[in-house]
Amino acid sequence: MKLSVNIISDTSGYATEKIVKVSLSQFNVESITNIYPDVRDIDSLKDILNFIIETCDNFIIYHSFQDSRMNVYINDFCELNNITYVDITGYSIRTISKKLDLEPKYAFSEESLYETDRFKTLNSLDFAIKYDDGKDFRSLKACDIAIIGVSRSSKTPLSIYMASKGYKVCNIPILLNTSLPDELFEIDSKKIFGLTIDKNILKSFREERLKSLGLSGKSQYSDIRAIQKELDYAKEIMEDLDCVMIDVTYKSIEETSDIIINHINSRKGEKND
Hints:
Elements: E1 3-9, H1 14-24, E2 31-36, H2 42-55, E3 59-64, H3 68-80, E4 85-87, H4 88-100, H5 110-114, H6 117-130, E5 145-149, H7 155-163, E6 169-173, H8 182-186, E7 192-196, H9 199-212, H10 224-241, E8 244-247, H11 253-272
Parallel strand pairs: 1-2, 1-3, 3-4, 5-6, 5-7, 7-8
């Protein structure tokens, strides 16, 4: 029977997922991993735990929380319901406590955990790297910003730059004649920003990319007619999504980021009116 591994965390769950992958690699077993990131209140945790019980048969829970209240709740829940679980943070704290022969303080400040600029930045960078270039479409519902565009339109550097400002950003490549994930059409289109670029500038970027890889500058990837088809297809997609389109041809990453942030802030103002 397939093993369902469920990761619940108050951050992205990326570090725990790596631990799970290493552990599963030791066994010849079919498995699926579900990640529930950014869980920061008991009510949300209850809903997730009940959902797992209702939808999974053969499962295990890995969890990592910096708030001791969340840790205590999920451990008690698993014990009462005879659920196999791994408490990543709790195990680490208990090990250090035993080694030092000291009791842990368990004095976590919710503000210091989740609201500091440093925590937000690290968590957002973790998110952007994990979900770069359409690696995992599950990120779309959790992201603050979804950036779409053709190859070499500055999606990745823009995502990393905006993550350094505390935004959770994922980017999705638009490939000619390739459908985008359904999840992209299910989120608020105001979260989505499409990057456009002049075809000749894009051609030069792609030729430089090919040269850096030791490849010939002449290929379908850098052919001007193929590029025009890609850009036309990308524009159709962006119009279907009804997202904001930004011409990045002569813009720096910082300028494009400012445009996106201004759009986000203006929407917040509309909601508050």
